[in-house]
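Re: that chain you flagged

S.,

Sorry for the slow reply, it's been a week of failed gels. I finally had a moment to sit down with the sequence you sent. For the record, here it is as I used it:
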Amino acid sequence: MTTLNTKDLQKIIREAVGTVLDGKVGQMAKAVVSEAAVLMPRSFILKGDVSSPTTKENHEKLYNSYVTSHNKISAKLDSVPKTDADNPNDSEFRRLKIDETHNMNGVKFHELLFTNTGDLNSEIRADSIPFMRLSRDWGTFDQWQLDFRACGMASREGWAVCYFDPFKQRYFNTFVEGHTLHLSLMAIPVLVLDTWHHAWFLDFPGEKLEYLNRSMREINWNVVEMRMLIAEMAKLHQLYSVQAVVSNEKETSVGLPQSSPPVEVLGGRIL
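Prediction finished late last night. Pasting the structure tokens below so you have them in one place:
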């Protein structure tokens, strides 16, 4: 196996990027694309007995609508002047930013949901990582179950979420209202259940508790375990240990024109 040093790797990257940007597609992209980020919908086979075929079909339609809406909103953000943000009481830029996050999170939550539920052979072993981690953080696995289900019951329109917190290095349960409210900073979701009314009321009218019970019996614990391993191996807790080196020698400029970015770049070079 050949080992590349940093200079060799940078050269390869420069050549690859240059090749792409020299082409017609690259030239068009540089002229058109600024902030827009395009999401591509994925295909899922929705299994499980909890949701009826109608509910599953509606879930897929809703998921695709979030993808479509996000892409339209992201493109619109390229044409909105940043000065539009000056008045947060009436700002198209602000509205688009809020809707961008709402729709992107809608995509994320549904992709997590589609892969961590619907296991007709769901089982959890006492020697598995999910069982051991959740028992550790709640005292018993049953206590975790009751807490997670309570979060699902407490959620009005949103999601029940079990997540890994890099700051505390442990797992927590919470509920998210909509797609954006009440999720802890840097929370890494390992298990989500849909608690919007459209997810359960058609199949379990007035019986949200039964919907949650049935859904928890179809959790794909293999998926949850892989997510836990990825979350823990990421070692994101190290972000909190970074210390700043402060210098008081540099003068701080004030009164910059509105069109000028606030940060000055010195001696940098883009590959």
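What I noticed first: Confidence is low (pLDDT under 50) at residues 23-33.

Talk soon,
D.
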